[in-house]
Amino acid sequence: MTDLNHWWQQAIIYQCYLRSFNDSNGDGVGDLPGLIEKLDYLRRLGVDTLWISPFYPSPMADLGFDITDHTAVDPLFGTLADFDRLIAAAHQRQLKVLIDFVPNHTSKEHSWFVESRATRDNPRRNWYIWHDPASDGGPPTNWRTVFGGCPAWTFDPQTGQYYYHTYLPQQPDLNLRNPEVQAALLDILRFWLERGVDGFRIDALRQLIKDVQLRNNPPNPDYDKQMRPYTAVLPVHTTNQPEVHTLVTQMRQVLNAYGERLLLGEMYNSIEQTVSYYGEPGSGVQLPTNFQLMFRDWEAQSIAGLIEEYAAALPSHGWPNWIVGTHDQPRLVSRLGAAQARISAMLLFTLRGTIGMYYGDEIGMHDVPIPPDQVLDPQERLEPGMGRDPARTPMQWDSSPGAGFTRGKPWLPLAEDADTVNVAAQRDDPTALLTLYRRLIALRRATPALVLGDYRALTVDGNLLSFVREHAGQRLLVALNLGSQAATLEAGSRTIQGNIVLTTGLDRIGERVGASLALRGDEGVIVTLV
Ligand code: NOJ
Q1: 167 Cβ below 6 A of ligand 1
Q2: pTM higher than 0.85 for the full model?
């Protein structure tokens, strides 16, 4: 795709982890009215699309990804009327709203599952994945849960069969081969589309269909005990089954009837598998999540290689996306350190495609150690050290005791530096990270070359990564020093003449660049070439 024909191509998607964004009623948990209060903050930051984590009724075994009703709001987060107010208030501010759609599983307390497990012959039995035990009485296959790598089948003595769950036993997988289940899920999409949502982030997309022949997954030859237990077998029969694409087509058809709405498909996949989800034009998801930047070595050669590899793999109708943080991964600052987090911001907002960022990264929030008695994420209990609570702590708005997030007791502990690292402290600070985010986003908005321009690698030299973005005569040079030592970009036979428009230190702006460009350690520079 070489033109900007769709709103989501220019989107900067801000993931709002609702529990932790802003608490309006003092119960220590973020909620929809709290989010409404902060929409102007998001506008000022410059993002244009919100993705809100699940707010549906849930026993919270997996913090809301275990749903008992996909078309309601859990009282913890507000009401349906609050949701309608949110949509109206967001749209009034030209903000689009994506919500989480969780079709792979429900809570085990969902009425569908309660019926399904009641008897073998009840009408909802086939809504979930039930199987007889293997001949030795054990689970039907060697399939493992994502959390903890435990057997992904749980025996239900009442009916003498096992049910399948990709994640926790409290999250039974729906049988998405069943047309009745498919129809029920498509109705859920329609319900929210009618209420005005601009699209969905589809949870666990690659897991939606499992092998009908129940073949065992093969052992992973590269597995060693340091790796996550889930990876001991290769999930070839439990992920990326061809029929998932048929489901996506059905979903897309529903969306297509509502004008231009977006499907962002969540997946942890290789580049090759990821791009297969673009499907045929008009029938796949518009954006299969590209999380690669979170996993590559933070090193010039490997990042440059990634950018090229991904571009080369995209189908001609595929629009790129880059996502650097989510509620499931360690935070940027904790992965890269504060200095390189600024470089990663510059990289992110100068790459071609749609951009996804995670709340709090714009102020440099880091992972917060969670005392054992306050752990809430089930993954931490199953895989100590892998818990996701540290990256989900409350947004730091100001230096007050509840960090401006709550007047009550926050559901997870606040960072110990919340009194200094917060929005209020950075709002008017000309060199703060928040200011850098705002300036980068504003520059991107004003510069089509940064969104859709061609990408041309310039140099990868030691820690220095540089490239040019070019569109309709507009050319920008981006030079990033991924190391802490000073480095110089020599023009050589190329022209790098121009003026600095932005640096990660928010200084040097307007400086002229001639035959070479000197970068300090941990510095990134954007030059408008003349
Ligand atoms: C992916 C979600 O991002 C994660 O938070 C959740 O635990 C699993 N899917 C299960 O829904």
Answers
A1: yes
A2: yes
